[in-house]
Design goal:
The protein has helices spanning about 15-20, 25-30, 40-45, 65-80, 85-95, 130-135, 140-150, 165-175, 185-205, 210-215, 215-240; strands spanning about 55, 60, 125, 160. The chain is mostly helical. The protein starts with 12 loop residues before the first helix and ends in a 5-residue tail after the last helix.
Length: about 240
Amino acid sequence: MLRTPSGGADHGAAAADNDLMSIGTVLNALRDEFPEVTISKIRFLESEGLIEPRRTPSGYRKFSDEDVERLARVLRMQRDHYLPLKVIREHLDAVERGEAVHLPPLGRPGEGDSAQTSGEPPAAARIGREELLDAAGIGEQELQEWESYGLVTPLEDGVYDAESATVASLVAQLGRFGIEPRHLRLMKAAADREAGLVDQVVAPLRRHRNPQTRAHAEDRARELADLAVRLHSALVQTALGVRLP
């Protein structure tokens, strides 16, 4: 079992709260086994729903021993089994339901394994044009206009990745405030530049000879994307002098 600092004897709820750990303490507890783990990595795993630490009234994260053990299991499954986060989440949920689950063998993936275990990202979910229109609650004319501005782009076979539904829904919501697609071109250009920056960082990982390094490339890209989105949000809030809930 992963050893974590103890907060002393249990004296009820107050003592239990004192036993909770800060993110810095959690980082130190994990680093013996996972020397490459970072605070941003822990925050990213939280944003992906792998852990749910408590929050103090001032917003600071507080972790229980169970949270740290769960974090360690997630990191082991990434390191030893080359599993994407979605599969890890499904595995942990199944364990919590008491279901019998089996992980793929430990060690380097062999020839003939799926693209995911050989370091390639899993295939993204896709939706058809009608599904996208229904999900966003828009008509064909609106979608054509958004496509003309590059806000939504179909894949080569005419379908869309699942994230396009999120983009379309947000564009529709902004439209209710009088913000038109042509006004969003600057946001799209900024997003493309941010994506290019992330790609520069992870591109060497995707080309690496070590399959484990390649397997981590997508998670690293998602972690960097999460940080970029949070920075963008903070900058907008600072510029407007507002704070989102």
